[in-house]
Every structure is written in C-alpha cells, then in structure tokens.
Amino acid sequence: MHHRPFTWSLAAALVVGTAAVVPLALPAAAAGATVPAPLSHAVASSHGPLFPAEISLPNGFRPEGLAIKGPFAYTGSLGDGTIARITLANGAVRLLAPGPGAPSAGMKVDDRGRIFVAGGASGEARVVDASSGAILATYHVAGTGGFVNDVALTHDAAYFTDSVNPVLYKLPLGRGGGLPAAGQVVTVPLTGDFVTQPGFNANGISRTPDGRGLLVIQSNTGLLFRVDPATGNARTVDLGGALLTNGDGILLSGLSLFVVQNQINQVATVALDRAGRHGRVVSQVTDPRFDVPTAVAEFGHRLYLVNARFDVTPTPDVTYTVVAIHRP
Length: 328
Hints:
Layout: H1 10-14, E1 44-45, E2 48-49, E3 54-57, E4 67-69, E5 72-76, E6 83-87, E7 92-95, E8 107-109, E9 114-118, E10 124-129, E11 135-140, E12 148-153, E13 157-162, E14 167-172, E15 186-189, E16 191-192, E17 202-207, E18 214-218, E19 223-227, E20 233-236, E21 247-253, E22 256-261, E23 266-272, E24 279-285, E25 293-299, E26 302-307, E27 320-326
Parallel strand pairs: 16-20
Antiparallel strand pairs: 1-2, 3-27, 4-5, 5-6, 6-7, 8-9, 9-10, 10-11, 12-13, 13-14, 14-15, 17-18, 18-19, 19-20, 21-22, 22-23, 23-24, 25-26, 26-27
C-alpha cells in the first residue's frame, strides 16, 4: 500500500479551531526534585494563548500514550481506544473515529501519517490513520495476560514492549514502509540481563542514538537496558548506579533520553553515549501540574506530557490534561 508523506504546515495548524484551558487542582511536587519556572505563553489572542502550556482533554478520556508529529499531538484512551488529535498551536482537541473498544496505550507516528498503537491488555498492536482514525491493521501479538505497553519505530520495523511477558513484538516493515501480514509478526524473547519481576516490567522503548539497538526501561526495577533488536539480548545500561524507578514512557532526542517516572511525578534526563551502553542522569524535574504522567513527546524547545491520573478512580467526570514544560 502506498502512503503519501505525512507533512503539516504551521499555518494550517493555526486555523484549526480553539479550545479553552480548564484549571485543575494541582498535586504537590515530588520531594527533592527541581521545579522549573512557570512556562510563559508566547502570544495571547481573544480565543486564548498561542501554544498553551496546559491542554484539557475530554472528561473521562483516560489518556496514556502521547506522540507528536509536526504541530499535532496524539493521545489514546485506555477505555475504548479512541485517539484524540491536538492542535498544539491553540490546544484544540479533535476526536478521531470512535475507538475499537480495546485500549490505546503507548504510540508513535511515522512519516506516512500512521499511528502505531500499543493495545495494552487487549494484546493487540494496531496501526491507525492519523487523519481519519481508520484502523489500517490490527495484530494480535500477545496471549492472555499480556500487556502491550509501548512502541518504538526504526527504519524497518515497529517494536512493541510487553510489561508482563519478557518479549518484544516486531512488526517488520516492507518496501516503502508496507505493513506486514499477520504471519510475519516476530516475537523476540528478552534475554541476558533482563529478568522479569513482579509487577510491570518492560515499558517505554526507543532506539539508541546510533540506531543500532533499542533502549527499554523496566518500571519495577528502574533499570535501563540496551537490547539487540535481532536477538533480544539485553544488557544493563551503565548509569553509575542510578535507578529510574517507575520509568514509563521514554523519548530520545539527540544524545538525551527523557524518562517519565509516573508515580513520582518526575522526568529524568539521561545523557547517553552514541551506542546507548553508558549514561548518566543529569537532571530530575517535576512540575506542580504533573499528575501521574505516563508519556512524553517533544515540540520545539518544549516537552509535552500526558497526565494519566492513575491515582484517581476513572469516571466520566474525571478531568485529564496534557502539559508542557521547558526542555531541561
């Protein structure tokens, strides 16, 4: 299947609707972490600020993953899997086609306008059209009891983590980025230093700076691993003894790896070598607007995080936000 390149203009983003920012009760900052100065708005208009630093999602949405491509952000519902598209310029939120009734967790958008979505407890990996919300493909990759949590894109594959089972799921991409048939999906066992523990294990995933390996955070131990994508052999990244406990979504930007630590409302910055074998934690930042953030994406000099609010019982009235901070 041929897909047109996925491009957006900033001018187009500026004319797509408006959205009000709803104030929320703010949680206390994590002890001992650095609190950045409030993020100022660049330009105000009669409809609200340009590039708002806090964006309200529909009540009861239950977001978890977050991806940005151009001036648009995407997040999905852990409830029915609906994906929302956010115009970053004004905070306008558009719900794409209704979800499939299965969760949407971690996600990434490719240059062909396709969203690769981890399906959580459904055991699915899905590919969704970023414009229409149409489901292009669904892969049943995990058996009963699995939790497909996050996804990383490389030049020739999409890799999904399972937070219960010590495996990665690989969707090999064909010529021109063609999606694989169901029988072509590969299960890659995680071996080497990776040892499954009680609770959530493999979570956020990214490529290494040199593109030759994968980085996987283990939430319950706080360990970061470099994984050989061909064999699944995992080696612990040397962080000088530092742990990234409650690590959830991760984002690679140059040689910096941003790690969301969900329950402690914190984002750690790790300076890596190109191979992703060694690194050091150079900052740990919190913000009073963080409310169990689970994913991070980048636009310009900002990091955007989605608040999953796992410490609140989900009801149709619960409020959810995406917040922006200065990149550390």
